[in-house]
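YM 10:42: Paraquat-inducible protein A sequence, as discussed on the call
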Amino acid sequence: MILGLSVLLGLEGFFSYQLHDLSARQEMIKQDHSTVNNISYGLLSVDQWREEVAGIVNRQVKHFKLTLKQKQELQAEVESVLYALIRKAEAMVAKKPQSLAGKIRKLAVKTFVKTDKIKAQVPDFAQKIIAKADNPNQKNKLSNLAMGKFTQLQHTDSMDSTLRANHALFERMYRKYHVHSKAELNEKLGGQLQEIRTAMYRYCFLMLGCILAVLALWWILRKRTELHGTLFILSLLFAFVLLAVGLSASMIEVDCRIKTLDFMLLGEHVSFRDQVLFYESKSILGVVEVLVKQPAIDSIAVGVLILCFSILFPVMKLTSTGIHLLSKKKLAENRIIKYFAFRSGKWSMADVIVIAVLMTYIGLNGLLDKQLAMLNIRGQDLTLIATNNTALQPGYIVFISFVLYGLILSTILKYITPDDAH
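YM 10:58: structure's back
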């Protein structure tokens, strides 16, 4: 029995280590994912808007086509300009020259330059000018000129420190995950998160399978009273493993984002996707750490209370139970040991934490759904879809399992030590 349970405990320890490691990795990857997709680096980023506008300008110039009506209106404008230039030239020639050279120049112009013929060629000139401007090669040159201005703006020395910091952040992320673009980064992180999520739940249920095996063994050996003490001590070790993972693994994850924002700009669609508004993932230990590091005394007090009643009391109860069963009578009958072993359950708030996290999840989920639903817009020129991805994590399942398993062990303890239970 000891050998079999030791192997089972080793398996549970391996599964719990994997779950803890995967939980930490998921939190890190999701933090990076939420950082690069934060609304500050997307919808509210000057750099991002510059890229969007530059792309629109590039496409608009290259693919711009004049309609027949526009060509006619433009030709009329060009003709009017050319006629005005000719009239101005005629007025200058008509002026009475003051010098001999001026008189000779005026005579030459009147003799060789026929303004009527030039005026007759104006429509043809205007048509050629428009055709030249509408030529694809000229459009490419104009597009390159426009894009050159954007590039010059992007690399100017006056670019503020915020944009430089943003570029440095993305470069670090690209190097960290060995990618070259934001699209590649999101695709890679999304794939990794999906694999981690699947593996986390697999290890979580394997841990619960180990606990069910222990409880099944209790049922099988319920009449073998000589084995109950040893079996209970080994059962406590399984509880410690559950508690360690339940406290350190993420329990709840809050993720609010704008899934899609699509609108028309200069006749083209501009889209922003997965713009993270808020992301946070915490374990019980993480919540305690945040609270005790706050400057406010009330936050510190709440953190200390959670630490005492939801962490220290369960640990003391499990430890005292083991000491009571293993130690000599004098230590086993110690009032403090017996108190923590048999009567401290009413002071332990692990079950309260379970209910509190669940109620927080339900309330927060409903509130976020309601608030984000107010942002949703579906129209011809503007579409905005906000999503709430808040979810409970496997750490919550493990902590619930610890609470239920602890209640079952307390019942078993009273059953195998009926005299002490009173």
